[in-house]
Fold this protein.
Amino acid sequence: MLFNSYEFIFLFLPITLIIFFSIGGKEHHRIAIAWLVGASLFFYGWWKPAYLGLMLISILFNYAIGVALTHKPKKITLIFGIAVNLLLIGYFKYANFFIDNLNQLTGINYHLETIILPLAISFFTFQQITYLVDAYKGETKEYNFLHYCLFVTFFPQLIAGPIVHHKEMLPQFAKNVIYKLNHEHLAVGLTIFFLGLFKKVVLADGIAIYATPVFAAAEQGVALTFFEAWGGALAYTFQLYFDFSGYSDMAIGIARMFGIRLPLNFHSPYKAVNIIDFWRRWHITLSRFLRDYLYIPLGGSRKGKVQRYLNLMITMLLGGLWHGAGWTFVVWGALHGFYLMINHAWHTVRRALGDDLSRSSWWGRGLSQLITFIAVVVAWVFFRAESFDGAINVLSGMIGINGVALPENYLAYLNYIDGLGDYLSTQGWLFMTMSLFKGIEEVVHLFLLLILVWYFPNTQQFMKSQWKPSLIWAISLTTLSIYSILNLTRMSEFLYFQF
């Protein structure tokens, strides 16, 4: 079930809220939690009921391992638990990828039936791995099976995160105040939810119309011109931004309606002034997971600079592979690993020269932000492309290999500016019929979104500094909500559902 669907907005969410608070308000807290677990399982099973059994098996196994970690030998139990979880992801997510590459390398033709990736398997598996590691360290333990089920299945964060720690969520459900309807929590939650819905159905889906045809053409071998390639790459850059930002807001907003505060998972990443800053802002809980459960166990920065750079690259390569079973995701991860290595090396040089990294001029920050943004856009091309050849086709267009072209009707308009159109023609610019670049309409759309992500406050900043319960805000939110709901006719899945 999608957050951006009529079934969710008008049936599932209000029914779940009403029954939860009706039960909880009568002090039947255990029954209220059971209701929420049942509703969350229904929410997950709506997509494909067959995979509900897989999730339940995963929950039973990890709960049993968590209990076993209270006894010795703890280390062997932890290794076994993590290994089984990784094998589960490995089979469903990477088996076909491994067999295809093995066939290409060896020339054999082993066939494996196509395995459909269960929804959210990466998220609920990683979340349970964090629980096992925390239980091994003695930082948390859970003997109540119902509470553990809620920790894994709580539907606002079940499908695409955030990846939460047991200690971040379950203690909140232990508070009696959670089970009584709080009008402030409800108002804040609805506001954040509908801001997220607007980002998804209006901003993300609205700009997708420029991205999808360009990447489809690239896969077919079409030679993309400069503006076509950049238009497609930038459109996807903003589509992914508002799609994931929208989901993150909606997840936080839904949880807040229940009085639960989920950790921040998205914090204006395109405002980042370097790649280190970017990964502190983009998919924050995944970055935390990779840092705490992969980068630091590998040695982090404790074993010298060479090992540090190697650890960064390994972490990002695996982070790329986590997003999808394809070489394009590996390349995307490698690019970010390379970016991080350069970023850390640059900081080392600046510190050696006595430069204060915490201080910089406005133009210096602006230039850093622009360079970081362009680097991220280039990497997103591999993230979006279905094949390596498709990504190269887009990048070739972006560096001008296939020339610069504008819609043919622009020639007459530009000639009004002192013959600018004819001059551009003599410089090699082409004026031709174009279906992949919409001209000024597309440029304005992309420019407005760039201004929005660079200079406007994000949802959390807006809620802290601007929002307050009032008639004006109520009317504004109602108008935005109605407009967003009217756009549900072009309903689409969230991009992170496929990871």
